[in-house]
Fold DUF1993 family protein.
Amino acid sequence: MTTFSMYTASIPVFKQILGAQLALLEKAEAHVAEKKIDPQALLQYRLYPDMLNFTRQIQIACDFAKGAAARLGGQDVPSYDDNETSFAELKARITKTLHFIESVPRSAIEGSEGRAITTGSGEKTKHFMGSVYLFHYALPHFYFHATTAYDILRHNGIDIGKKDFIGNY
């Protein structure tokens, strides 16, 4: 009989996609250098005027990964300043996020499917049980922002494909 693992359903998934995002940033950085493009053209690019730019997509993907790891692990969510303005700074944010999520003990996350989780404040307060939070809130948001960041790079001519998004597993 196989048992369900909240840890396996969360941390390795975040690590895989964030690792792929690091590789995507490397390709984006090489692309702007080769084509002699101002990096801000990509960092500030958005798919539509009412959407967030590339930099914010990466920041928010990191926020959902660290937030989910912390909440599922019963820890305080670390606060990161949203002040990245370069590919190097975005890579550092992803690396910091990876270090944090790897620091949350597996034992703290296992069994968290029934943990009461609250996000937001005031009118934006949301209450979840751990499994609903992970599968219906944190992972969909994480994938949305990671995918949107990928789409921005692809739309701007960077030679990437599905394998680049998925990364190594």
Observations:
- The mean pLDDT is 96.
- The CA atoms of residues 20 and 167 lie 5 Å apart.
